Amino acid sequence: MDLQTLWFAAVAVLWTGFLLLEGFDFGVAALLPVLGRRPSDRHLMLRSIGPLWDGNEVWLITAVGAVFAAFPGWYATWLPALYLPFVLVLFGLIIRAVAFEWRHSHHTPAWDSSWTWVITTGSLIAALGIGAALGATTLGLPIDADGNRVGGAFAGLGWPALLGAVAVLAFSLVHGAMFLALKTDGPLRAAAGTFARRWAPVAALPLLAWAGVVHLRYGTTVTAVLWLVAALALVVAWAQIVVGREGQAFAAWGAMLVAAAATVFGAAYPVVVPSTIDAAFDVTVADASVSDYTLTVMTWAAGFGLPVVLSYQAWTYWVFRKRLTAEPVHEEPAEVPAS
Amino acid sequence: MDVLDIARWQFGITTVYHFLMVPLTIGLGVLVAVMHTMWVRTDKPEWLRMTRFWGRVYLINFVLGVATGLVQEFQFGLAWSEYSRFVGDVFGSLLALEALLAFFLESTFLGLWIFGWGRIPKKVHLATLWAAVIGSIVSAYFIIAANSWMQHPVGVVTDDETGRPVQVDFLAVLTNNTALAAFSHAIVAALMVAGALLVGIGLWHLRKRKLAGAPTTDAEHAVWFRSVRLGGWVSLVAFVLVALTGDWQGKLMYEQQPLKMSSAEALCETEAPASFSILAWGKLGSNECDDVHSITVPYLLSYLAHGDFSTAVPGVNQLQEEYAAVYGETYPDDPSFGDKAGEPIDYTPVLAVTYWSFRLMIGMGAVSAGVAAYALRATRKGRVPTSRVGVHGSLLAVAAPFVANATGWIFTEMGRQPFVVYPNPDVPVEDQVWFFTAQAVSPGVSAGEVWTSLISLTLVYGALAVVELWLLTRFVRAGITTGDGAPVPGSPPEGTPDDDLPDGRDRTDDVLSFAY
User: Region Disordered: what ranges (chain B) (predicted)?
Assistant: First the structure.
């Protein structure tokens, strides 16, 4: 495998990792008004993702950084073509991040409910916007020979953007519910399980449809198999949540995303931004990539860095592995006086 | 305004705003980590209380730095796609390495630190904070290396076919002398920000307590007193280092971007020996430096530029001619230059901006050092100052190093115009890499789109600033007795649970109430 293909795969892994990890914290945040009816439930929901969301978001930053680093031609075509959706995503991510932190910096019911609302809104905007951007990109943008968008600010937005947006949000909602069913206990666990059971089959449809369309347009036998794996994972996830095996359901639901994303990226390769104007204007891996020297440097850095990152992120999940309950957490008596 | 101007305003506003958070995050992160280390080593409760109080201030601010940093990573592509295409072989990899090697570290371990109280062993927990702090410093290094490459491109050759730089020496990019100087300058400047905060707030609490007749023997007094002493020493030592690293950076700039430095001095004609300008008047805004008059210190500029008292320092007029001779009198008549195609090129940056930002940077840094010296003197041998002017002045002066940091960046960024990638004078002209700001902007993006993002981001940033300041002020005013009502982490329950919390949270038992 040449370095360009390797880095295409790396970018695909980073985007998939981002959707897989941030997907559940998007989902938990978006479900706050649905499952978090009582203040204690909302607190529990936020605590379940509290230590994790920021680390999850770095997957997005790294994914975008890797696109810039390995494929500047992709980065420079893609972001301006979808200028307004990306600005909207940034807006959503900004207000959501500060809301997570600031919600707990002051205590009145109005303050809490305002920032809860901001967390939910920001997460919805970000999930929809990222889905729209990915959907529009995988199915084509109006790109001219120089890699610039033609046709104005909204030219990139059509049904593929809508499909991508709904796919990412719907996936995230059930992913969040499955995460809550796995990570919490008490009435919230039951409510989240019920939500996941009821909505999993419906919520998977846009994602499978998106991957299916991309496969039908560009795919190969391999992507057909990947798509079938995604469909199978959905059946497993649903069956497991119905019988209450929350861990296996969460894993299978995640596997569905991984297989669907692999279908999309696998079918798209080697095109990174297809042009709806003329296939000759498609931006490909070869057009967009940096020099082999830079790719080699990056490969060494990632070869050392990524295992370290994965180990300490795994450790974080291990440290916060316990189920959370609304009961207060009792700790060992400390060695310091509580003055 | 055309897309170029709007995009430049957007970059300026979002970057300066982001850079208000960054020095505080870096500087305060280091100091909180020191406090936490002192607590682990000595077990003294005041160190824990300091860690918790300043840790909260750190966190309230940290998240805003992260959120506004996101915009930075995207906007190179959004508004500056031609720039991204041009520099892709170097610049993008530094951003990606920042994310991979630094930002993951910072975000993941900060989450562990916030939620790890009483959950992981004490020393491991301390290590998580250090990991996060080191992450933020490494992150600053990669970003400054990326910026310094734009100021002084090294380690590349020009691709004959595309005309774009191709990286040939990654190590040269990482060890760019511009980057090493700028990084050390920025890190010590960040410590000044944190030091000033500790001094201003600490003195204010000390004075308030003294006027109220509070004891000077309790833990709360110790918290504020130590904060002032620590902050004062950090500020003072950092100021010396800021001056030394600034001198290093200045001397490099005289070699690498002489126009930036001559504009900083409004030095029109080449002088030998050259005088340093203290104050200037006249039509600085006209960008004709012949209209400017200033009060000067003889010989000083030669010394600052070259380390001796007699060397000639080139003036703006000469440099403008030299640059025009090499890089062209006018922008190429090419559509990629938009409205600027065929227009004459002004190689002199906006004099009013470079001149005054340079002076504000140095002046505000000096104010900060003065306040630190005052605070250390006023608290010698356990004394507590009651001077209204001194204490309130110190509180006001918390803003000074922020202004110094912001104007420093404005100076360095505006001073390298009209280039976004400045030609490296160490390289023969035919092998040089350079890129005009005018050709960097995204060609496919409309003015309406950039207006939309500029206005919406500015409004959101403004609103966030109001909330952040309100939160910080409220938290800081309350001090450590009421504002930080959560118990010492891991302590046995004391008293009855506080039922007032809206979530029904139990303040005494919930270890997470430290942060969430």
Answer: 483-509
Give this prediction's pTM: 0.89
pLDDT in tens, B449-507: 999 999 999 999 999 999 999 989 998 988 886 434 444 443 333 333 333 333 333 33
Report the distance separating Cα A21 and Cα A236, nearest Å: 20
Quick check: B373 contacting A, CB < 8 Å?
no
Q: What are phi and psi of B391, to 5 degrees?
A: -75, -45
Residue B329 lies in a domain: no
Whole-angstrom Cα distance, residue B238 to residue B235?
5
pLDDT tens digits along A200-210: 999 999 999 99
| Domain span including residue B174 | 3-260+346-482
B235-242: average pLDDT: 96
Residue B93 forms part of a structural domain: yes
Residue A332 with chain B: CB contacts under 8 Å: 118, 490
Which residues in chain B touch residue A331, judged by CB atoms under 8 angstroms apart? Answer: 118-119, 489-490, 511
> Would you call B446 and A153 a contact, using CB atoms and an 8 Å cutoff?
yes
Query: How many structural domains compose chain B?
Result: 1
Orientation of helix A39-49 relative to helix A109-139, angle to 10° = 50
Is B74 part of any domain? yes
Q: Please tell me which of the candidates B45, B95, B487 has its beta carbon nearest to residue A68.
A: B95
Asked if B19 and B405 touch (Cβ cutoff 8 Å), the reply is yes
Inspect the interface and report whether the beta carbons of B95 and A65 lie closer than 8 Å: yes
Comparing CB atoms, the residue among A68, A78, A100 nearest residue B92 is A68
> Does some domain include residue B506?
no
